[in-house]
Design a protein that fits this description.
Structural class: alpha+beta
Number of helices: 6
Oligomer: single chain
Order of helices and strands: HEEEEHEEHHHEEHEEEEEE
Number of strands: 14
Largest sheet: 8 strands, antiparallel
Shape: globular
Strand content: 25-35%
Distance between the termini: 36 Å
Helix content: 10-25%
Length: about 260
């Protein structure tokens, strides 16, 4: 039996259709989460309860993990340089289906959608050759949305509104890695790279297996790592494998800068 598509609010639909840059999270075999930045180009099908994004074949590990465990989350966390007006933080969780060989029509649709966000693409014989891999060697990721949560503030403060299954209880604490929890990177050096990047999000695997993506502030650091501040109740207690994303971007996604600290 086919699942009934999830129907989200008009406010959420404007956000899904208009954000230039969102955070996508997927889970790792060890029970952690990785969160990266993508431009979804407003790819939504409200009637089918589906959203989507594209990615390059040059990122095989991301695709392998999504194929292995299709539970993903998309966090619509900034209105900067996009078209949506509401100041809601929207988190969509669902099951991904990877289209490894999108039809020419689907690829053309993506190019048409990109014109709205990036401006008209370069065309002509030379440009078509130079941009062939970027334009045609794309993988389409469709996400059937299972749950959508929204907060009336981009920092995810305020009352939570959930569409779909109820928000699950906090996940149990995870066992520490065999090699311990000490940082595997130079915290001070990483901090210097993150400082200029205004958007910071943390992702972890929720109790039902779907990633949760939470806006965070970095309020301190020492040799053991970063100290984070998040909205009350969104970061569960106890240790866990979580991924950090810090990024920035300018209009039309020019000058995208991204730092990720993946979980195991």
């Amino acid at each position: 039996m086919t699942a009934i598509p999830l129907h989200w609010s008009d406010t959420a639909h404007e956000v899904l259709s208009g954000d230039l840059n969102v955070a996508v999270a997927y889970v790792t075999p060890a029970g952690g989460a990785v969160v990266v930045s993508v431009s979804p180009l407003g790819l939504t099908d409200r009637a089918a309860g589906r959203i989507g994004f594209t990615t390059s074949l040059g990122f095989p590990r991301k695709l392998e993990r999504i194929l292995r465990d299709p539970r993903v989350a998309l966090a619509y966390h900034t209105r900067e340089h996009g078209f949506a007006r509401p100041e809601d933080y929207v988190l969509a969780q669902g099951d991904a289906v990877v289209d490894m060989r999108p039809s020419p029509q689907r690829l053309d649709d993506v190019l048409d959608a990109s014109d709205r966000f990036f401006g008209p693409g370069k065309s002509g014989r030379a440009w078509d050759w130079l941009l062939h891999e970027y334009r045609r060697a794309r993988v389409y990721v469709d996400v059937d949305v299972r749950r959508m949560a929204a907060w009336p503030d981009l920092a995810a403060y305020g009352p939570q509104e959930v569409t779909g299954p109820a928000w699950p209880d906090a996940p149990a604490e995870q066992r520490a890695p065999e090699n311990g929890t000490a940082p595997r990177v130079d915290v001070a050096r990483l901090s210097r790279k993150i400082d200029p990047l205004p958007y910071r999000l943390l992702a972890y695997r929720g109790a039902d297996g779907y990633p949760v993506v939470v806006p965070v502030e970095i309020v301190g650091r020492d040799h053991t790592g970063f100290r984070l501040l998040s909205p009350p109740g969104l970061l569960p207690p106890g240790g866990r494998r979580a991924g950090l994303l810090a990024h920035s971007f300018r209009p039309q996604n020019v000058g995208l800068a991204m730092m990720t600290s993946p979980a195991g």
